[in-house]
Design goal:
The protein is of the alpha/beta class. The chain has 12 helices and 14 strands. A 10-stranded mixed sheet has the order 3-4-5-6-9-10-11-12-13-14. Strand 3 and strand 4 form a beta hairpin. The longest helix has 15 residues. Bound molecules: iron/sulfur cluster. The site of iron/sulfur cluster (SF4) has 12 residues, from helix 4.
Length: 348
């Protein structure tokens, strides 16, 4: 039977205040509960200053716990940590914590699975579970922070799922994470990556937010993009880049393009030419990614020599491109690889 109770991390302090009032509990209890939740404590047993009758009422009315670390993998190469969370409804999501000079950065999932069907992506092959609530996105940040015992300094919404396919909850999550009375993360320390849902990019542009925007482009023309990204390619490359130009104009911010390289697919000099023509004059940066292979993937990882030639070709054509440092390659840290592995293990 479907559980209609709300997940505790989706509750705002004002809602907890109303709840306390309804239940006849003193109003200051709302602040105490909120404090526990904001520090990543979602198990009432650990809320040491909350009396038992209130703990029982919380468990009765809301989904407490509801998000548990079921696996933790630590890279022996660079210390990257991957957490696998089990949600109260049985969905599994992945969260990756990376260490940079500026501190810890967390890459969160926005959905359990993805509907976008990109042919090179493990998440697309693992099927779609659901869109995550704002609390489930926030939970990945604060529970990971608690597990790491260290403050998270930046958040990237680039894990499993297409964030702009879960737009409303994503915006609620941004509100929670940037709340100066709560987690208080600066907008410039957040990046959202979309596969290019043009109407949502336009909506996001209208907000004039300081949150960084990245676009998973991966192909410089419609034909290749349809092959690699069938659902996002519903919008033409021209429509997508026009929306990006509008974004840069409206916000004054640089935009990032993610470009995963597949051997002899999108790493040719002809592709470099097309990309240069497409992005001419746009304030952008290109993140080249040596794409990972997974079982059943139709594409091969690009050879280092070809990556180097492609990067130099872009530079020679005036484009600002760097190769993204690979993190946690020994723990399948790339999006969706592990969830897919775990789900197929469960089916065996
Ligand atoms: S690449 Fe991103 S948008 Fe495409 S299927 Fe994977 S998670 Fe979804």
């Amino acid at each position: 039977m479907k559980d209609n109770r709300r997940f505790c991390l989706d509750l705002k302090e004002s809602e907890l205040s109303c709840w306390c009032k309804e239940k006849g509990f003193p109003s200051y209890r709302a602040g105490q509960i909120s404090k526990w939740l904001a520090s990543g404590v979602i198990d009432t047993a650990k809320m040491t200053n909350i009396p038992n009758n209130i703990k029982l009422a919380l468990e009765n009315d809301f989904i407490m716990k509801g998000m548990t670390v079921i696996h933790k993998f630590v890279s022996q190469i660079d210390g990257t940590v991957k957490f696998v969370y089990l949600l109260h409804d049985g969905n599994i999501i992945e969260t990756v914590v990376m260490r940079y000079k500026t501190g810890l950065s967390v890459c969160i999932s926005s959905q359990a699975g993805c509907k976008m069907g990109c042919t090179f992506c493990a998440s697309a092959h693992a099927g779609f579970g659901k869109s995550l609530t704002a609390g489930e996105m926030f939970g990945q940040v604060i529970l990971s922070q608690r597990e790491m015992g260290e403050k998270i300094r930046s958040v990237v919404v680039m894990g499993i799922g297409e964030p702009f396919d879960n737009y409303k909850n994503l915006m609620d999550f941004f509100e929670i994470i940037t709340d100066p009375d709560g987690f208080g993360l600066g907008a410039r320390h957040i990046t959202v990556s979309t596969c290019g849902l043009v109407p949502r990019i336009k909506e996001f542009t209208a907000l004039k937010s300081q949150i960084n925007l990245a676009i998973s482009l991966h192909a410089p023309n419609d034909e290749l993009r349809r092959e690699l990204m069938p659902v996002p390619a519903h919008y033409t490359v021209r429509e997508l880049i026009d929306a990006c130009r509008d974004y840069v104009k409206a916000t004054g911010r640089r935009i990032t393009f993610e470009y995963s390289l597949f051997d002899e697919v999108n790493d040719t000099l002809a592709c470099a030419d097309e990309l240069a023509a497409l992005l001419r004059g746009l304030n952008c940066h290109i993140n080249l990614i040596a794409a990972n292979e997974f079982d059943g993937s139709p594409y091969k990882r690009c050879r280092p020599k070809r990556i180097d030639v492609f990067r130099k070709a872009l530079a020679a054509r005036g484009l600002n491109a760097t190769l993204r440092r690979e993190m946690g390659s020994d723990i399948m840290a790339a999006c969706g690889q592990l969830r897919r592995g775990l789900e197929s293990e469960e089916k065996e």
